[in-house]
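B., you asked whether I could sanity-check this one before it goes into the benchmark set. Here's the sequence:
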Amino acid sequence: MKKIAVFTGTRAEYGLLYGVLKELELADVKTQLFVGGMHLSQEFGYTVEQISNDGFPISEKLEFLLSSDTAVGITKSLGLALISAAEVLERNQPDILVVLGDRYESFALAQAAMIAQIPVAHIHGGELTEGLIDDPIRHSITKIANLHFTSTETYRKRVIQLGEQPSCVFNVGAPGLDNIRLLKPMSRAQLSESLGFDLSKDFLLVTYHPVTLSPDGAEQALQNLLTALDDYPEYNIIITYPNSDTFGRQLLQLLKQYHSNRTERVYLSPSLGQHRYLSVMKLAVLVIGNSSSGIIEAPSVCVATVNVGERQKGRIAAASVLHCQESYLEIASCMKKAFSPAHQALCSNVKNPYGDGKSSKRIVAKLLAHSPIKNSYKTFYDLK
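And here's what the prediction gave me:
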């Protein structure tokens, strides 16, 4: 039986892989699920429990995340992840390893698989996020990977431009949209009870991650965003934690301080979980911050997005997504436009450029069709 390994290291990444894991359950394969990074951290919600509660057997847990958000701390975590990955791959001997996106954790798994001559399948390659160290990580994984599953045709062409064989690069759409199509959203009352937070008022959904190429991780930008949020006291606010990137804990302290002074109005969560997160997004008046979910998933639930700063610069975006720089005045102006009747009406009929919500079936079909070869060498494809 074919052995397909899947790695996840963050809550957001797991949400995007959920549909792929469900499709693998239906296939005649042995799925090996490797879980590590933020999933095993109490500080970030110990989300490995969510994976178990969803019914997915976990083959291996990789402990490598240090309690540090400095460049040295992240680099040490990367080194520990590489060591752990080598041991896990040696024990399990998968026929192919599936990784997603642009995180350093996935980069470590891909490097170890390359050395072990285990083919790698990469989801969400070819994209740009110009404010982050993630860009070179994503493209490095592309150069390691043997199979590529991109979310748009533009990204497929970019992966080919990087020298990958066109026959191994597939535009399948974004797998995160599958969950929107398949999961029944929770009602406002169900969410209120689940969160223990009153959602009878309209609310905003906020996720703000560090901008790792910024000198301070964009801490001042987050302060500007929080100031702009206070201009709208009529809305409650749901905030999710930033990632464990460089400067992540600095931003988290700022969010905790903001929440502590506004507990009646603000809900701060290490992790909402995929089902609750998408349900909150669907009911929100506005998604604001710098998370990719505001660009990729939010248009599919017809919700406006204000994307702040440089973190997602370069991503293809629907018309419902408004972009602004990091100053208070620009954020406030962009929020005002997002709340306008004209923009809200536009959002109700917007077309999402990231596909039709059927990506996971396409990905698993290609994984099953792929003949595993224990050879990491690839021929470079030159553009004609």
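One thing to flag: The chain has two domains: 3-175+357-369, 185-347. Otherwise nothing jumped out at me.
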